[in-house]
Design brief:
Shape: globular
Helix content: 10-25%
CATH class of the largest domain: Alpha Beta
Number of domains: 3
Number of helices: 8
CATH architecture of the largest domain: 3-Layer(aba) Sandwich
Strand order of the largest sheet: 12-15-14-13-16-17
Structural class: alpha/beta
Order of helices and strands: EHEHEHHEEEHEHHEEEEEEEEEEH
Radius of gyration: 22 Å
CATH superfamily of the largest domain: HUPs
Distance between the termini: 51 Å
Strand content: 25-35%
Largest sheet: 6 strands, antiparallel, barrel
């Protein structure tokens, strides 16, 4: 378990089992964290949201009383809409695939919260499955969690270095099964709660319904990539993402979305459970962000990487470009979606080197 020099700790507790266990762990180490529940969501959509904020607050209030901690609710709904909400819709409007959860960590949990309350504390503790440490030269590092299946470094890959230097992850060394066991041992009401799924601010709102409300519909053709044959129609390219299989409304499948022509509003698909057109060895990245000032993307460097939140790593080589860098994967991979993030890890050591935004490939840009 990590040791923390700071004594003044803010603990972000959502009511879920992971963040709930953070509190007794900190108490056992002699700290008395100030608990905060961050209220987020789409402003004006509170009545439609199924995120169980009432139950979350009840559980968090109980934990605060149980351990004698101060507790406050911080309303960041407006900030969420102005940053994460707008980012999501602007990315979708451009035909890209956003990742609201990644940007929520940067802009809200470790961003807007810092401006409102976090600046009064030495450290901010969260229930993420990740590790952080300070080396002998004073640099902070983002490391992978002990539980490789639950590891959440992908979602933390765009936090700033200042945020990394302040955040701590008390459960990073603990497997999920042990976190559940500890929650039961501590008799926490969240011990048996299911893990949250999806984008919380949407609640019960269907993602496509949400997009439709903000962007409307723009009918276009669904075309088979290999033959150019029109197979059907879609209601707007922004309803579809690379690698998508469900919701296309086509017979004779399975069909996968493999490409989008944004100017002409065409969605290209390929047939079969494993179409060749899904695969590529190149992951083009822009807006590169090293995780700390001592790290950089090195041309020819062999690395591990992820293009989505998953337990497995893929190996590849960094090739620097005018745009940023390409990751040349050692195996062909599918689902490389522009707008998502490519996260680069050291080849053998358990830490994040940095990340970049996946760009359109030159091939897709030229057709």
């Amino acid at each position: 378990m990590c040791t923390f020099a700071a004594m003044n700790i803010a603990a972000l507790v959502s009511g879920g089992v992971d963040s709930s266990v953070v509190v007794p762990l900190l108490k056992e180490q002699g700290y008395n964290p100030h608990i905060f529940y961050i209220k987020i969501g789409m402003e004006g959509k509170e009545d439609l949201s199924s995120c169980p904020s009432e139950e979350d607050i009840e559980i968090t209030t109980y934990i605060a009383k149980k351990y004698g901690c101060k507790f406050d609710i911080v309303d960041l709904q407006h900030e969420y809409f102005e940053t994460v909400g707008r980012y999501t819709m602007e990315m979708v409007r451009k035909g890209l695939t956003p990742n609201p959860d990644v940007m929520c960590n940067r802009w809200i949990k470790l961003g807007a919260f810092e401006e409102k309350e976090g600046h009064n504390f030495d450290k901010i503790a969260t229930g993420h499955y990740a590790r952080s440490w300070e080396d002998e030269n004073g640099f902070f590092w983002l490391g992978t969690a002990a539980d490789t299946i639950k590891d959440q470094t992908y979602f933390l890959s765009r936090i700033t270095y200042a945020q990394l230097s302040k955040v701590i992850f008390p459960i990073g060394d603990i497997p999920k099964t042990e976190v559940r066991r500890l929650a039961a041992q501590y008799k926490l009401p969240s011990a048996e709660r299911h893990d949250s799924q999806g984008i919380c601010f949407l609640g019960k709102i269907n993602y496509n319904d949400y997009i439709r409300e903000y962007l409307g519909e723009m009918p276009g053709d669904i075309v088979e990539l290999e033959t150019g044959k029109k197979l059907g129609h879609h209601k707007g390219f922004w309803f579809h993402t690379i690698g998508q299989r469900k919701g296309l409304g086509l017979g004779g499948g399975p069909w996968f979305v493999v490409k989008k022509d944004i100017p002409n509003n065409i969605v290209y698909v390929s047939q079969g459970y494993d179409p060749v057109a899904q695969y590529t060895n190149i992951v083009p990245l822009g807006d590169l962000q090293p995780m700390n000032p001592s790290l950089q993307f090195v041309d020819g460097q062999r690395v591990r990487f992820k293009i989505r939140h998953q337990p497995e790593f893929t190996y590849g080589t960094i090739c620097l470009t005018e745009r940023g860098a390409d990751i040349v994967s050692e195996v062909a991979i599918s689902g490389v979606a522009p707008g998502q993030f490519g996260v680069v890890y050291h080849e053998v050591e358990p830490y994040v080197v940095g990340s970049g935004v996946i760009c359109e490939s030159e091939e897709s840009l030229t057709g």
